[in-house]
Amino acid sequence: MMKKDDFMREAIAISIDNVKNGGGPFGAVIVKDNEIIARGANRVTASNDPTAHAEVSAIREAAKKLGTFNLSGCEIYTSCEPCPMCLGAIYWSRLDKIYYANNKVDAKNIGFDDSFIYDELELKPSERHLPSESLLRTEAIKAFEMWDKKADKIEY
Ligand SMILES: [Zn+2]
Q1: Where is the CMP/dCMP-type deaminase domain positioned along the sequence (predicted)?
Q2: CA of 83 to the centre of ligand 1 (A)
Q3: How far apart are CA 77 and CA 69, in angstroms?
Q4: Which end of the chain is more exposed for a tag (fewer CB within 10 A), N or C?
């Protein structure tokens, strides 16, 4: 029976291997019933995918393996405190718990600063550094109305 420290050591080992293999210093594993069911490494630069963070990669693998979009009953061990994107992905995938090793400040100290995104979330869209503008809401709302009335929808 593996313990929490062993799961985290696996996430850390992935992060160390990933640095050796040209990726960012981040690794994650997802555990279900005391067993690692998915592993993820940061492959942003290696695969030219800005969303390929370790946690998102592990979530994709776990969901594929289990054949579900709902990962309740699973826990994630990540070598670093999740960024806002990964935190959102973890909430959407309904994981039960997050364990992390390095924290946001440790990441910031080596050039991975995500505090600007947390800061942006506090602001109204019109006040953020990234401009955003609403267009064609009256046309887009049709899909929402269809969804709302759909009898056989798969809710998530
Ligand atoms: Zn992330």
Answers
A1: 2-113
A2: 4
A3: 18
A4: N
For residue 97, is it within any domain?
Answer: yes
Q: Say if 22 falls within a structural domain.
A: yes
Task: Report the CATH number that the domain containing residue 103 is assigned in CATH.
Answer: 3.40.140.10
**Distance separating alpha carbons of residues 45 and 43, to the nearest angstrom:** 6
**pLDDT over threshold 90, residue 144:** yes
pTM of the complete model: 0.92
- List the catalytic residues: 55
Residue 106 placed within a domain: yes
Calculate how far, in angstroms, residue 41's C-alpha sits from the geometric centre of ligand 1. Answer: 11
What's the CA-to-centroid distance between 90 and ligand 1, angstroms?
Answer: 10
Strand (E) or helix (H) holding 32: strand 27-32
* Contact in structure between 94 and 70 (CB atoms under 8 Å): yes
Closest alpha carbon to 107 in 93, 117, 97: 117
Per DSSP, helices labelled H in 29-114 are 54-66, 84-92, 104-109
Model confidence over 16-70: pLDDT tens digits? 999 999 999 999 999 999 999 999 999 999 999 999 999 999 999 999 999 999 9
Cβ pair 83, 89 in contact under 8 A: no
